[in-house]
Amino acid sequence: MLGRGSTGRAGVNMVDSNGGHDSGAKEEQRSDGSVAVKSTYKVLGALEDGEAAGVLGRNDADGGTPIGVQGAVPNTDDGYGLATPDALRLLGILDTDGTTFRVDTTVESDPEDAANVVVGYEENVVENDAVGATISGGGREWGGPNAGWNRVFDDYGTVSGGFGNQAGGGYQAEPGPAPAATVGGGRLNTASGTKSTVGGGAYNDAEGPLSTVGGGDGNSARGEAATIAGGYDNATSEVDSATVGGGRDNRSGSDFATVGGGQHNRAAGTHATVPGGKRNRTSGAASLAAGSYAQAEDDNAFVWNDGSGADTAEPEDDADRFSSSTADGSGVTGSQTFHVKATGGARFVTDAENNAVTYLSGGSGGWSTTSTRTAKTNVEPVDPETMLEGVDSMEVSTWEYRDGDGDGAGVTHVGPMAEQFHEAFDVGDSEETINSINADGVAFGAIKGLSASVDETDERVDRQADRLDRLEAENEALRTELQERDDRIDDLEARLASVEQRLDAGVSD
Q1: What pLDDT score was predicted for residue 423?
Q2: How would you label 309-321 residue by residue, b for 16+ Cβ within 10 Å and e otherwise?
Q3: Cβ–Cβ under 8 Å, residues 161 and 136
Q4: What's the mean pLDDT in 370-389?
Q5: For residue 201, what are the contacts with CB-CB under 8 A and spacing of at least 6?
Q6: Using 50, 70 and 90 to split pLDDT, how confident is the model at 85?
Q7: How many C-beta atoms surround the C-beta of residue 12 within 10 A?
Q8: How many Cα atoms within 13 Å fall on the side-chain side of residue 434?
Q9: I need a surface site. Which of 133, 207, 234, 273 has the fewest CB within 10 A?
Q10: How confident is the model at residue 308 (pLDDT cuts 50, 70, 90)?
Q11: 278 class by beta-carbon count within 10 Å (0-12 exposed, 13-18 middle, 19+ buried)
């Protein structure tokens, strides 16, 4: 056992608790002028007095390393560098296959002060008179990318392992105490915010109070309660509770904004979300942009884009993005809007057997709905005349939906009321709605009823036309007969006139 005194290194005779010298002790002169003592026991103290100390070491020097007691033993199954009560200030070293174990504590003058524990590389250090700090291991000499000792700057900070890691110390924008910071491991990670955490990885920073970086490389959680789960080169701004789940080069830059993952995504609106994808942006509050090259610029807007139309040669050009503020052939823009761009089509399935399907084909502006007979059951024919009568019984009006104040919303519609529709046809799952399939079916049924009525009318008209043709033929025959009679009468009248002329001439003679 070596004891360090105020004048430097000196040999210490081996003694037992009764003051007797260890008969196995041998002194050895070292090259640095110190004297080493070799014996069966480096220090052996056997006590009968409960108030006495088995080993007591003190260093009163003004400089140098203040080691009161230092012990070193070779690697053995039952070797001890030093074993003492917890309340002593000590530096104990156990060399086992080149691995160093060091415990650095303070004398507990105040029971509220917690001791520091430092293990691993000899330069691992607790700074700023911090208490309750822990360095569980790791660390190495500086030099090159794989170097650096571990440091704890503030009370109750922890570095579990790795190298070049720092817990506490504040960050450049707000230097100052940052207690209870934790780095789990990895290399060159910094947890500089109060109660901040870096789980591992490399070059990660948890700068904000209560911030967390789970791992990855080059991530920076700057705001209060910010979270970056992992990934590469992701960051949150100095805002409240921003989140990046992972991915690469993602930014969450507003209070409570979230980027789930993906690449080159930006969430800039309060409570905004980008679940993933590529180069999506949100700037509206509580907005969502998903897919690829989607941009939700307005509050409470939902935008999903399939990535079509983007100019990858200039990926930062906003004109390439499908946006909530661009009409693109419709008047639906701005806040509280829903936008989906799917150039290959869109499909909705509402049953487990894929029988109930509604979809928009690519390039189509109208919905297609499953209507094959193989997907239907309980098929019953309808009476077209009854359907026509039902349509005739409904009042068809123009109307507007009410807005939040009970006034008209400004868009005029035309159609019947749902209550009259259900009273006339008794179909659908709600008396307050009209299903478009049922509306179309009623229209088809009524048209068929109208068609039957028209056919019947046509038949009557045909019969009447035939009769009219017969009557016209009869009239024509009568006209011909009358004409012939008129011609005969005219002939008779002409002959009568001739006779009368001759008679008149004879009388004159």
Answers
A1: 93
A2: ebeeeeeeeeebb
A3: yes
A4: 92
A5: 186, 189, 213, 214, 215, 216, 217, 219, 230
A6: very low
A7: 18
A8: 18
A9: 273
A10: confident
A11: middle
The model's pTM is: 0.69
320-324 own/partner pairs: CB under 8 Å, 24+ apart? 320/293, 321/279, 321/281, 321/293, 321/294, 321/295, 322/293, 322/294, 322/295, 323/294, 323/295, 323/296, 323/297, 324/284, 324/287, 324/295, 324/296, 324/297, 324/298
Mean pLDDT computed over every residue of the chain: 81
- Rg (C-alpha) for the chain, rounded Å, is 50
| Helical segments of 358-402, H only | 384-393
Q: Is residue 158 within 8 Å of 169, Cβ to Cβ?
A: no
How far, in Å, CA of 22 to CA of 344, rounded?
Answer: 91
pLDDT tens, 104-116? 444 333 446 678 9
Q: Which tokens in the block code for residue 68? A: 């009161």
Q: Given pLDDT bands bounded at 50, 70 and 90, which one contains residue 3?
A: very low
Are the beta carbons of 27 and 11 closer than 8 angstroms?
yes
Cα of 454 vs its chain's centroid, Å: 59
Structural contact between residues 168 and 177, judged by C-beta atoms closer than 8 angstroms: yes
Stronger pLDDT, 90 or 499, i.e. the higher one: 499
Query: What dihedral angle (degrees, nearest 10) is formed by the CA atoms of 161, 166, 168, 173?
Result: -150
Determine the Cα–Cα distance for residues 257 and 265; give it in Å rounded to an integer: 12
